[in-house]
Specification:
Elements (H helix, E strand, L loop, with lengths): L9 E6 L3 H6 L7 E5 L9 H14 L6 E5 L8 H9 L5 E4 L5 H13 L7 E6 L2 H5 L1 H5 L5 E6 L1 H8 L11 H13 L3 E4 L8 H14 L3 E4 L5 H8 L3 H19 L5 E3 L2 E3 L1 H22 L1
Parallel strand pairs: 1-2, 1-8, 2-3, 3-4, 4-5, 5-6, 6-7, 7-8
Antiparallel strand pairs: 9-10
Helix pairs in contact: 3-4, 9-10, 11-12
Length: 292
């Protein structure tokens, strides 16, 4: 179950223990929300957070936003109950923390099936440890319910004992391995968070780098960064115009029985047409999201 094409420019973490945040998420211009039961929730608030997320999703009102529930790990006292509860909601996905093997994905998939998770509910994996990087290919192909990866760059930097530099050069190999695995299996992949909320220039640079590397969007920790992420990961007007031009030229050539398409002196191959159509579809979906 490869991730369905949809805007994922901005995906905001929201603590499940904060009822006010869960309410605010219904009106924020983020493409997606990660309703968090793990890092953002204190141990003594885990059960309350789980109940609040379930209740919020039952109430609805999140529109076209993609909703993921980040559970605690199965090796914790709360993980199994989190997955059972999440499986019974209308959430789009369950996000698993610190996934290091394909077996973890399959184990969670079995629980979801047993608990009646809806057919479209996917599994996403936090990729945030060295072992996860080495096993990225196996994890990506673990189960048909897998929908995508989320980079946990903060925890990864700690485990690598590397510097969290502005250019993220110490993590480039890890980012690349996960990107390769995700694209090989048709998965979506989101870039990690930028922790310094006072560093607007650094955030913008991180978004640009993520877009250049090939990420679908960026995970966020504060609503004030949503607009910048949306702008960074949206296709430029010039890209959309060029894509539409390619599609129109290809359709015209096909109608005339021509096998060769040339646009502005450039030979257009079928692969270019496929990419152009995907970009236009995404641009239209983004327009719908922004208008909602």
């Amino acid at each position: 179950m490869a991730a369905a094409p949809r805007p994922r420019r901005s995906v905001l973490y929201m603590p499940g223990s904060n009822a006010r945040a869960l309410e605010k998420g219904r009106s924020l211009p983020a493409d997606g929300l990660i309703l968090d039961l793990e890092d953002a929730v204190a141990p003594d608030a885990k059960d309350v957070a789980r109940d609040q997320i379930v209740a919020a999703l039952a109430e609805g009102g999140y529109g076209k936003r993609e909703i993921q529930i980040r559970t605690n790990g199965l090796n914790t006292p709360w993980g199994y109950a989190d997955i059972v509860a999440a499986s019974k909601t209308a959430a789009d996905a369950i996000l698993l923390p610190k996934v290091e093997s394909a077996d973890t994905v399959r184990q969670v998939a079995n629980i979801m099936e047993a608990e009646g998770a809806h057919e479209g509910m996917t599994i996403w994996c936090m990729m945030e440890t060295p072992l996860a990087m080495l096993n990225a290919k196996e994890i990506a192909g673990a189960h048909p319910r897998l929908g995508g990866f989320v980079m946990g760059t903060s925890d990864l930097a700690k485990d690598l004992n590397c510097a969290h530099t502005p250019d993220r050069l110490p993590m480039i190999t890890s980012l690349g391995l996960c990107l390769l695995a995700a694209r090989a299996y048709g998965l979506a992949i989101l870039d990690g968070v930028h922790l310094d909320l006072s560093d607007d220039d650094g955030f913008d640079a991180s978004c640009r780098q993520g877009r250049e590397l090939g990420f679908d969007g960026k995970t966020l920790i504060h609503p004030k960064t949503i607009a910048s992420a949306n702008a960074a990961f949206a296709p430029a007007e010039s890209e959309i115009a060029w894509a539409r031009k390619i599609i129109a030229a290809h359709e015209e050539a096909a109608a005339e029985g021509k096998g060769v398409v040339v646009v502005d002196g450039k030979l257009i191959e079928n692969l270019h047409v496929v990419s152009a159509k995907k970009l236009v579809v995404m641009a239209d979906l983004i327009a719908e999201m922004d208008a909602a």
